Amino acid sequence: MQTIRFGIIGCGLMGREFASAAARWLHLTESRARPEIVGVCDTNEALMGWFSTHLPNLKQTTTDFRELLANPDIDAIYCAVPHSLHADFYPQIVAAGKHLLGEKPFGMDAGQNATITKAIADHPGVLVRCSSEMPYFPGAQRVIEFVRSGAVGDILEVESAFLHSSDLNPDKKINWKRIASVNGDYGCMGDLGMHVCHVPLRLGWKPSSVHASLVNRVTDRPDDKGNMVPCDTWDNATITGSVEMPGGTFPLVLKTWRIAPGESNTWSLRVLGMKGSALFTTKSPRQWQYMHYEAGGAQAWQVEDLGYQSLFPAITGGIFEFGFADAIQQMWAAFIDELAGGDARGFPCATPAEAADHHAILNAALASGRTGQVQDVEYSQ
Ligand SMILES: NC(=O)c1ccc[n+]([C@@H]2O[C@H](COP(=O)([O-])OP(=O)(O)OC[C@H]3O[C@@H](n4cnc5c(N)ncnc54)[C@H](O)[C@@H]3O)[C@@H](O)[C@H]2O)c1
Question: The Gfo/Idh/MocA-like oxidoreductase N-terminal domain covers which part of the protein (predicted)?
């Protein structure tokens, strides 16, 4: 089996998730290639010890990511650093000829995203994808198949949501994701927007205009020393887009909330149509719900337990549950499959074009939230 040698830039929360997914690659039964992590980089040297301890093939640790890019034994990079660094790092990664799975949002704002998009266009020899793992849950894949099969008919509404709740606690300490100069002015939308836009964009649902309600409920948070400092990012965003389709315009509701009481990490996708409707939520991770309707017939939702019916086959028995770490691994399997010449079994990771479109939506939503007006979405492509 082909081996693809990776370097990780950013050894935080997500850097570790990739290392864990790569370490249990034997979980997958039909992969064309496997990742091997040979180098890691973080400015916080203390974080690299975990990788040195657990990764037997790790040969390079550095605090300067350019040293990873200069390493001829690295084929591809996973970059998981704060948003303010994306527009500096991603162009340098592709210019070095390294394939890239970059973390969302692919730049802190639309201008930075344009810089990244241009750099990718200038280096067509590398494969670049944007991280977004939640659509790899089996139930999400079923909803996507349902839509692609034409079962929905004319669409009434689509709601795509990612709801977090830990910010309900006013005593939660501030971190870079809650500081606009590092996270970006999008706030919660920059953090969660790609997660809610990925599937709608993949299915061709591009809103031509949006209206956004933005909420900043907690304006100060304690820092490490207990001092209250400004928390200047949006907590919650509810965006309603207008999507024009042959069957008529429908509302696309995108919710990115950091303060959704009781929701620790709920990603959901609900499609309502005249012929069929479907729903997946990570609150019921092994199920999906759907309804077929014929004129005058019963309106009866069905619930199916899916278990572990993953896009990329795995050793886990079909009756068992699928979880977040599995979704991460499936996303990685999709990227590695493409790197090895495959088609990601029909569901590649989010593309740079989708990342650019999501910036167009968020940029319009930010303007709408500030003015209260409906805003046209200016797509660059
Ligand atoms: N796909 C997902 O579900 C998901 C979840 C969380 C975060 N993310 C994304 O992942 C990225 C990182 O988020 P995180 O939660 O892992 O953050 P994190 O703060 O846990 O990790 C970021 C790491 O980058 C390091 N870093 C900062 N500056 C650096 C530099 N100049 N060179 C090298 N390393 C540097 C930090 O020391 C830190 O260890 C962000 O883009 C975020 O949006 C994605």
Answer: 4-123
Residue 381 lies in a domain: no
Residue 249 located in a structural domain: yes
d(CA 261, CA 264): 8
How is residue 261 written in tokens?
A: 């009481």
Q: What is the CATH number for 38?
A: 3.40.50.720
Nearest residue (CA) to ligand 1, atom 6: 14
Best residue among 42, 45, 282 to mutate for probing ligand 1's pocket (most ligand atoms within 8 Å of CB) is 42
201 within 8 A of 358, measured Cβ to Cβ: yes
- Mark which of 109, 130, 151 sits at the end of a domain: 130
Same domain, 141 and 90: no
Determine the atom of ligand 1 nearest the C-alpha atom of 41.
33
Residue 176 falls within a domain, yes or no?
A: yes
Pair (241, 320) in one structural domain: yes
End-to-end CA distance of the chain: 37
- Domain stop point among 130, 160, 186: 130
- Residue 365: which H helix or E strand, with range? helix 352-371
Residues 55 and 139 in one domain: no
Whether residue 141 sits in one domain with residue 7: no
User: Hey, what amino acid is at 149?
Assistant: S
Q: Are residues 114 and 225 in the same domain?
A: no
Enclosing domain of residue 85: 2-130
User: What is the distance in A from the centroid of ligand 1 to the CA of 103?
Assistant: 8
| Digitized pLDDT (tens) for each residue of the chain, 381 residues in all | 999 999 999 999 999 999 999 999 999 999 999 999 999 999 999 999 999 999 999 999 999 999 999 999 999 999 999 999 999 999 999 999 999 999 999 999 999 999 999 999 999 999 999 999 999 999 999 999 999 999 999 999 999 999 999 999 999 999 999 999 999 999 999 999 999 999 999 999 999 999 999 999 999 999 999 999 999 999 999 999 999 999 899 999 999 999 999 999 999 999 999 999 999 999 999 999 999 999 999 999 999 999 999 999 999 999 999 999 999 999 999 999 999 999 999 999 999 999 999 999 999 999 999 999 999 999 997
What is the rounded CA–CA span in Å between residue 95 and residue 258? 35
Distance separating alpha carbons of residues 125 and 62, to the nearest angstrom = 26
